[in-house]
Design a protein that fits this description.
The structure holds two protein chains of two kinds.
Chain A: E1 2-4, H1 5-11, H2 18-27, E2 31-38, E3 41-47, H3 58-69, H4 87-90, E4 92-95, E5 101-111, H5 118-126, H6 134-146, E6 151-154, E7 162-167, E8 173-175, E9 181-183, E10 189-192, E11 199-202, E12 219-227, H7 229-239, H8 244-251, H9 258-271, E13 275-277, E14 282-285, E15 294-296, H10 298-305, H11 311-320, E16 324-327, E17 332-335, H12 346-357, H13 377-391, E18 394-397, E19 402-403, H14 405-408, E20 414-415, E21 426-427, H15 434-446, E22 452-456, H16 472-478, E23 486-491, H17 495-498, H18 500-508, E24 543-547, H19 549-554, E25 561-566, H20 568-573, E26 590-599, H21 604-614, E27 619-628, E28 637-646, H22 655-671, E29 675-677
Helix pairs in contact in A: 1-3, 5-6, 6-9, 7-8, 10-12, 11-12, 13-18, 21-22
Chain B: H1 2-25, H2 29-40, H3 46-53, H4 59-98, H5 117-131, E1 135-136, E2 142-143, H6 145-148, E3 176-177, H7 182-191, E4 198-207, E5 218-228, H8 233-248, E6 254-261, E7 264-273, E8 297-306, H9 308-318, E9 329-336, H10 337-345, H11 358-361
Parallel strand pairs in B: 1-4
Antiparallel strand pairs in B: 2-3, 4-5, 5-9, 6-7, 7-8, 8-9
Helix pairs in contact in B: 1-3, 1-4, 2-4, 5-10
The chains are: A alpha+beta, B alpha+beta.
Chain lengths: 679, 366
């Protein structure tokens, strides 16, 4: 809202400098975005919050200024001499939609259409309105000054000299002032001619071309009404229109402003010689909102503000802003003015008092606390995982939650009903390396060799349409939820190392050793599915990996790209437990290595499982120490070296005991068709 | 016997003189060991031989000479030990002198990854609030109209909905992507194990249909909510000042001004003195400050006292009065994490946060 200071001073004769006024307005909630000067004129640019439609005009801001500086707000001049036959003789008004139109006021003016005087044109220019003719300019002037939109009909062009307020019929058309012919849906408010035909104007949005003021217009019917906010908003949205008038009516105009604004128009018309008013104002009431009365306890103001505000000051502020206050310190009845539809309850009154009291005068204090703040175990664990993964060289990236549909297909997709672009029309549900690939592509651009990316983010459970987390009862209370997995992607990492990163994360999460073999066991990679084999259900915990050959092509990665996915949710939600001390081993461990020649398709996890199955209770750990292909290894085969570690808590193992176990392992592996070298 | 005694004394003197000469020529530990063997060796050491000869003397002589020889032995031992120490010291010194270490040589580079700059800010905010006794609560990102709007005093067709252009999901249920973390307030109050006490922050991703240099369709916010008996604007101010000072430093002033949000009443916006121009509105070269648009203030967060309508909506959903607006009050606040990071690092395009370009990500300390 643009606000010329000279205009403002007519009603609130403030004396402070513009900069000071701007600061003071900002501190009562009317944020001043800028101060412009045009010749001798200074104009404030106000950012008025959507609830304060009453301050989207000069007089409303003047009221605030008067309240700030304790000035008397000067009344608007509305006196006009009236001539001719009563207005009611020449114009009929009917409100057939009382729920739409709270009050309809009209006045007749005999006019001589011409240009506006210079001072009026200049004022309108200062607020960014182009001058059209004296009558239209006056309606704009009064809207800027008082906030009440009004419309001037050429009475001669109003069929039957009758204005009828009604709802639209679906499909009827109106040519609006901007020259566009608009086809209306049902339930748009219109002002129509006699008998309700035809529609002449869109109520609270825009006038129509058929009854527009022209140079030969002799008599105008000035209309100023109160239109229901919700109806106006719905109609404007349905028509894709947003006007100065609809902006105000949508946010709640002043139901009592019609008559004074028409009087002001008549006064100004006489003043600039544009015409004279016929006697009387025609006023028809529809369904008006009942006046509110709000209980105010001054102690409640003090408690919510957190500082004592003297009752006299509370009362003075409210009255300066147009509220009627009756009662005592303990309890008062406050009636908001008709222009303050935003004030409905005690908290709203607290705001009125508080903002004029001054937020800067309220002391700062920290609230008393009876609670200790701590991160939950799962939150600490997530941080730990992130620390470990970044510590071993992965960089965190954050991707948009939406991806192209192709990235998700053929999985059932959850799509946006109103995406910004087709590149972002589907919610990511299964990562498929998309994010990692994108990250890696940028990494490649930045550096010759691949880097690793780490991503945490929300993901929809695959195949879910209404994603939910937790037990159904909990989900109902919480509403739909997107679950958060974490994806770690590694580009161009040596094969044996590539799965080490997420394993480290699993260990960092401190997963309890459900099977007694240490947390690392939970991170075993499930066997890849042989080509053509049926898809198996993914284990609930742990890792999943995808050789992102598709992504590699799409993102022009060189070298090997591997996507590993951690089911973060299961890691984070697992119970933490407290680590128990175990006395240190006093007897030495014995290590034996086995070289195993197997098909490339044989998963290391299978070997691991077979070893553990037969090695006996003294086997402490099995670890893969080398994976080799190349010279001396036939094509299609791979040589794996596995290290077996034996230990007993009570005594030193004999070489016979260890050999017996190793023999059993060798038999088991050979029985599975694997070749053991050097045994 | 007297001759024998004299002979032994002379031999002892000779041994002594020899030792004194030889010991000065010792250059290394091998020579020192040889010296030790020569004089103190059990079988053929010079002193050992002398001591063995004592048997040829009479008792008095034997005692007297024995004492002298033992004193000599002790002295030789002491001198040998002393030389040993000196030798070792010299060897260490020589070794150090030989071993030149270029401490300016770079070590083998170990690549350490980084947290995302937004994660850094988020965790910093979490730490500040946890230290003030807050709990960190995650709300869902897919919401329905109730949680995102209605319970927050934004009924259908409320003009404030225009400020937040919403992404809707296809399909039934009217699901949408939350437009603000404020919706998490409602979830927490419904789940709260100890109502009416609330002291939480809710960081997380939010979504709005908007994309340009200052708007990203996905971005991150932190919401805060404190509810209890006697909570006032004074507490809101104190809390926001404390955390902005913790985040940006004590040097920057914080300004509060009335504003409007449907779910708070009174509503308050907080501005921070511009950290680029230090509140002057102009830079050192007198050019206008772009970051604060020459106002000297940065809009940092929105806040306010919880609107009683929000408590009433939660009570209605719970079917009981868990948060009686007459008995308890609260404040809420929300700020954009990107905004904090952009202000702090001087980043001028919000979309950079989501492009995963290492040239960007590696610019910030982690």
């Amino acid at each position: 809202v643009k606000l010329p200071l000279s205009w403002l001073r007519e009603y609130a004769p403030f004396t402070v400098e513009p900069k000071r006024l701007a600061d003071d307005l900002t501190s009562v909630g009317l944020a001043v975005d800028g101060i412009e000067t045009h010749g001798a004129q200074t104009v404030l640019e106000l950012d008025v919050t959507t609830n304060r439609v009453d301050c989207m005009n000069v007089y409303g801001v003047a009221r605030e200024v008067a309240a700030i500086y304790g000035l008397a707000l000067r009344p608007l001049e509305t006196a006009a001499s009236e001539r001719g036959a009563p207005a009611g003789d020449a114009l009929e008004v009917k409100v057939e939609a009382p729920e739409l139109c709270g009050r309809f006021s009209a006045r007749l003016l005999d006019v001589k259409i011409g240009p506006s005087p210079a001072w009026l044109r200049e004022r309108l220019e200062l607020v960014g309105i182009r001058s059209i003719n004296n009558v239209v300019d006056l309606t704009n002037y009064v809207m800027v000054e008082m906030g009440q939109p009004s419309h001037a009909f050429d009475l001669a062009r109003v069929p039957g000299a009758s204005l009828v307020v009604r709802w639209s019929r679906e499909g009827e058309t109106v040519e609006t002032l901007d020259g566009q012919t608009r086809t209306l849906p049902a339930h748009v408010g219109v002002i129509a001619g006699k008998g309700g035909e035809p529609a002449l104007a869109l109520a609270g949005i825009m006038g129509g071309a058929s009854s527009e003021i022209q140079e030969d217009t002799r008599t105008v019917a000035l209309e100023a009404a109160w239109w229901d906010p919700l109806s106006t908003r719905r109609a404007a949205r349905a028509l894709g229109m947003h006007t100065e008038a609809s902006h105000r009516f949508e946010r709640g105009a002043d139901v009592a402003a019609g008559r004074p604004s028409l009087d002001r128009l008549a006064h100004l018309a006489e003043k600039i010689g544009a015409g004279s008013a016929r006697p009387g104002v025609i006023e028809v009431r529809g369904r008006e909102r009942p006046a509110r009365s709000i209980r105010l306890r001054s102690a409640r103001v003090d408690a919510l503000v957190g500082a004592p505000v003297p009752w006299a000051q509370q009362q003075r502020t409210l009255e300066a802003l147009g509220f009627a206050v009756a009662g005592t310190t303990a309890e008062a009845e406050v009636r908001p003015p008709t222009w303050r539809l935003d004030v409905a309850r005690e908290a709203d009154l607290v705001e009125e008092v508080g903002r004029h009291f001054g937020l800067d005068k309220i002391p700062s204090a920290l609230p008393p606390s009876g609670r200790v703040g701590v991160l939950r175990p799962s939150q600490r664990r997530e941080r730990r995982i992130r620390e470990v993964l970044t510590g071993i060289g992965m960089t965190e990236v954050i991707n948009y939650a939406f991806v192209p549909a192709a990235d998700v297909a053929p999985a059932p997709a959850v799509r946006l009903a109103n995406p910004l672009t087709s590149e972002q029309d589907t919610l990511r549900n299964v990562d498929r390396g998309a994010g990692a690939g994108r990250g890696a592509a940028h990494q490649r651009a930045a550096r010759p060799q691949g880097r690793r990316a780490l991503r945490a983010g929300a993901r929809l459970p695959a195949g879910s349409r209404a994603p939910a987390r937790g037990a159904p009862a909990r989900a109902a209370a919480r509403g739909p939820v997107v679950s958060p997995p974490l994806v770690a992607a590694a580009a161009a990492v040596r094969p044996l190392r590539r799965e080490g990163h997420p394993r480290a994360a699993v260990r960092a999460a401190g997963r309890p050793a459900a099977d007694g073999r240490g947390a690392g066991a939970a991170a075993r990679v499930p066997a890849p599915r042989p080509r053509g084999a049926p898809r198996q259900r993914r284990p609930r915990r742990g890792l999943r990996r995808r050789a992102a050959s598709r992504g590699r092509g799409a993102y022009e990665l060189k070298g090997e790209a591997v996507v590993l996915e951690l089911d973060l949710e299961s890691l984070l939600e697992a119970p933490a437990g407290i680590a128990r001390f175990r006395s240190l081993d006093r007897f030495p461990a014995v290590e034996r290595d086995l070289s195993i020649l197997c098909d490339e398709s044989t998963p290391a996890a299978e070997i691991d499982a077979r070893v553990r199955k037969v090695a006996g209770e003294r086997l402490r750990s099995v670890s893969l120490v080398d994976r080799y292909t190349g010279n001396q290894v036939p094509a299609g085969k791979v040589s794996l070296t596995v290290s077996l570690r034996y230990q007993d808590r009570e005594r030193t193992l004999t070489s016979e005991e260890v050999q017996a176990s190793v023999d059993a392992v060798v038999r088991e592996l050979r029985a599975a068709g694997l070749e053991i070298r050097g045994e | 016997l007297a001759d024998k005694s004299r002979e032994l004394r002379e031999t002892a003197r000779a041994v002594r003189a020899e030792f004194d000469t030889l010991v000065r020529e010792v250059k290394d530990s091998a020579a020192l060991q040889a010296l030790k063997d020569r004089f103190l060796g059990r079988k053929s050491g010079a002193l050992s031989s002398l001591l063995k000869s004592l048997g040829q003397l009479g008792a008095d002589e034997r005692r007297e000479l024995g004492q002298e020889l033992n004193a000599l032995k002790n002295e030789i031992e002491a001198q040998l030990a002393d030389w040993q120490t000196r030798l070792e010291a010299r060897q260490r010194k020589d070794a150090l002198a030989r071993e030149r270490l270029d401490t300016s040589l770079p070590g083998r580079r170990q690549y350490v990854g980084r947290r995302h700059p937004l994660t850094v800010v988020r965790q910093e905010l979490e730490d500040i609030f946890v230290a003030m006794g807050y709990e960190v609560y995650d709300g869902p990102e897919v919401e329905d109209d109730y949680f995102n709007f209605e319970a927050l005093n934004m009924p259908p067709d409320h003009p404030a909905r225009d400020m937040q252009d919403t992404f809707y999901l296809e399909g039934p249920g009217g699901l949408l992507l939350r437009t603000h973390t404020s919706s998490a307030q409602i979830h927490y109050m419904l789940e709260n194990a100890h109502p009416p006490e609330v002291r939480i922050i809710c960081p997380g991703k939010v979504y709005r249909r908007d994309s340009d240099v200052t708007h990203s369709p996905m971005f991150q916010q932190v919401e805060g909510l404190v509810v209890g008996k006697g909570i006032s604007v004074s507490h809101l101010k104190g809390t926001i000042e404390a955390f902005l000072h913790a985040l940006f430093g004590e040097a920057y002033p914080v300004r509060f001004r009335p504003s409007y949000f449907p779910y708070t009443e009174p509503s308050v916006e907080a501005d921070l003195g511009c950290i680029v121009c230090e509140g002057k509105g102009r830079l050192a070269d007198d050019s206008p400050c772009r970051i604060c648009k020459s106002t000297g203030w940065l809009e940092i967060l929105g806040s306010g006292m919880v609107n009683p309508a929000v408590f009433e909506a939660v009570n209605a959903r719970l079917g009981r009065v868990a948060y009686d607006p007459e008995a308890v009050s609260g404040f809420a606040f929300g700020l954009g994490i990107e905004r904090v990071a952009m202000v702090r690092h001087g980043i001028d395009d919000i979309r950079l946060f989501y492009e995963n370009d290492l040239r960007f990500l590696e610019q910030f300390p982690s």
